[in-house]
Automatic annotation (TrEMBL):
GO terms for biological process: phosphorelay signal transduction system. It comes from Ardenticatena maritima. Signal peptide: none annotated. This is Response regulatory domain-containing protein. Pfam families: Response_reg. Keywords: Phosphoprotein. Residues 1-90 form the Response regulatory domain. InterPro entries: CheY-like_superfamily, Sig_transdc_resp-reg_receiver. The modification 4-aspartylphosphate is found at D25.
């Protein structure tokens, strides 16, 4: 398990470790989680990326899926069971 402080670091770690799954917040300060999906997928094409957001904006969802995310989770509806199910499904 890794945690990145920037998109550059996330892409570097994805390339180095080739994780099965990455959880990415849509809003990352001055960086875009959507761009994060693209960079992670470029560095590690087999990594399955799940976007997480407190903003249930449909455009975020569409853009994230188009960028290569396999799922989009709304933080407001997120509980431990839902997170576990999405992670298990995405990691398959």
């Amino acid at each position: 398990m890794c945690e990145a402080a920037s998109l550059a670091q996330a892409a570097h770690m994805a390339k180095r470790f080739q994780p099965r799954l990455a959880l990415v917040d849509v809003v990352l300060g001055d960086e875009s989680g959507i761009e994060g999906v693209r960079r992670i997928k470029q560095a590690s094409p087999h990594t399955r990326v799940v976007l997480i957001s407190a903003y249930p904006d449909r455009e975020f969802h569409r853009s994230g899926i188009a960028a290569g995310a396999v799922a989009f989770l709304d933080k407001k509806d997120l509980d431990a069971d839902a997170l576990r199910l999405v992670i298990e499904d995405a990691a398959r």
